[in-house]
């Protein structure tokens, strides 16, 4: 193996932390030994999550809580070239703006210091820090507002060696999935800083989930539970049929999170057998996590996920590669005594596509004075837009007057290329055909 094909040599030249290199080498060894495959229903049993009902509303638990938001995604599926969290959501505010203001409000109303840090990737750091500069009082003492996700080499699919792509050397690298959070915490000593300042627990959530407010009730539940690690779960709906879900592994009785990439295609949609999905809102105890990371040299041994791509995602003729990733929530099987808790859908408002974005921008939600998104109708409608709406610029052009009213809708399916006028209202089920055209101002669809 040459210096160009040895992953350790490639990563050392790039200045990657030793902990991250060791973790990557372990994952690569696992893949070479056959790991990263599918986990079938025959190997797992259904899991039923306990409910949060009756959790105390005491705000004191927030005083020992720190918060981390995962902010490494570029929003490439929407055609973006910057952090997705900078996308406008409501009232001229981005995801990032709303997250910061949620925390600032909680600080003022509860007296909690509630430090907020963001886990950035090498692609989202600069733009995000520029936006956060508008909030000079965000930092708490000397705790950093930025944690930097590591990067790892993409591997040629057949040879499992780092790919070389002279056309754009940046494309030779990829983020290692949000399971890298634990490696970052160990490599940077961030947990040591938190412990020194008296913080007992950490709440982690995705930046594109504005429902993930550091809620005092959930914080109090976790503090009282005695669990070292917990994930907020919600009941799956048809919209979650391709999402990861909790289960019990038959071989050892462990609670696990089976991710989408680990689920056979023919077993993706069974929301009755596996009724709970992860919100990716998780809580962990600082002392327990420090101890476990120290015992394992920063490697929790999370199961590796193989993500198959081409080295240039825009060129399907470029070499086939695999990206080795881990999922943050998979740590639920590592911590002894880890658990989940069922929460309401109000804590799970992810925006992964423009379908989701249309709903969040619509009157299905209102933004309160404390910067929480509150659901207006009893049920959120199902929205499916044609491919011409997939990219954010194309999407915005087709809704020049903003989102239609969806508060009375059950579903909206748009098959063709339609441009929506002002004050359009959807009632019940509505479908627009493939012919396309203009929806006039004031139109009522589905009535």
Automatic annotation (TrEMBL):
Q: Name one GO molecular function term.
A: UTP:glucose-1-phosphate uridylyltransferase activity
UniProt keyword annotations, A-Z:
Nucleotidyltransferase, Transferase
| Leader sequence segment | none
List each coiled-coil range: none
Which residues does the annotation say bind substrate?
178
Instruction: List, alphabetically, the Pfam families matched.
Output: UDPGP (PF01704)
Q: Where does the source fall among the domains of life?
A: Bacteria
- Give a yes or no for keyword Nucleotidyltransferase in this entry: yes
Q: Give the residues the record marks as binding UTP.
A: 84, 149, 177, 208, 352
GO BP terms: UDP-alpha-D-glucose metabolic process
Annotated InterPro entries: Nucleotide-diphossugar_trans (IPR029044), UDPGP_fam (IPR002618), UDPGP_trans (IPR016267)
Family from the record: Belongs to the UDPGP type 1 family.
PANTHER family the UniProt entry points to: PTHR43511
Protein name per UniProt = UTP--glucose-1-phosphate uridylyltransferase
